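ok so i was messing around last nite and threw this chain in just to see what happens. nothing serious, just curious
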Amino acid sequence: FLKQVDEILQKEKSTYTIDELLKHFDSSSIVVCLFLATIITSIPLPPWGGGFETIPFGGLCVFLALQGLFGSTQVYLPSSLKSWKIDISFVQKSKFVKDMLLWIKSKTKENRYEWVFQPITEKIMYLLVIGNALLMMIPVIFTNGIPSQCITLMSLAWLLYDGLFYLIMVAFSSLVIFVYIFLFITFGRYLYYIRKNGFRKFWKKIT
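result:
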């Protein structure tokens, strides 16, 4: 993956169609799109859309993950979208991007625990992506960042072919889903009790 990125950054060509980029990343295109779709929403910034800003990105992740689950090796897009052109000159000239790639290379090890990368583990990744993407689509402030970061880092681990990093992210992504489900069920019970008995009785119960 890093070699594929380097190839694009080092070329003089700076404008590509979406179809050209998808073909360049070939069988990794779905995971690359998952990484790109969540990298912005994974940056720890104050919520700028009241919790609604991650909904379209979550929906896109579900769309991509379903393609992977059903056996697609490349992203399916309508032909009209594939012809769109993207100027990546700002990425090619960015010192931050180059420094980030060097940092990633220094912190990860390719082919570590390579036995992890099997068709079944790829399906598990897509299932976890769908779970975290659905959490991203819940319009509640401060509940969207962690699921987005799970998708970003899990897809990056897969692209880097670092098995240890991938196993850690699979475990953490699973934990996030279970914790959020537990919290939603717990708060749901409290809300149901308040609605049924009133806030005063609820306050007396917990105090």
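not much to say yet. Strands lie at 15-17, 85-87.
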